[in-house]
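EI: anyone free to look at a 96-residue chain?
SC: sure, send it
EI:
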Amino acid sequence: MPPTPSLPITVAFFSANPPALVELDLEGERLAIESELRDVGLGDVVELRNHSAATPNDLQRVLLMRRPTIVQFSGHGCPARGGILMYGGDPLFPTA
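SC: here you go
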């Protein structure tokens, strides 16, 4: 049986909307997730921490210092290159 996570469960919500690509409604997606958590009675158990316009440094810092229970990536992606974060205003494919 897997260990029970300590409460609250923290979700690091990373998102990026590079200006050269079609704009996504990432704020709407985050709000929908928060609404769903409240609707199912998990609003006090799951803490969603937003990290918009995320850079590789943001990702590293949050993972090492905050140690979230769950990591959610939202934004553009490419099957051959992975997810897109921001780097100096330009898209970066950190999982490539």
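EI: Helices lie at 26-39, 56-66.
SC: 👍
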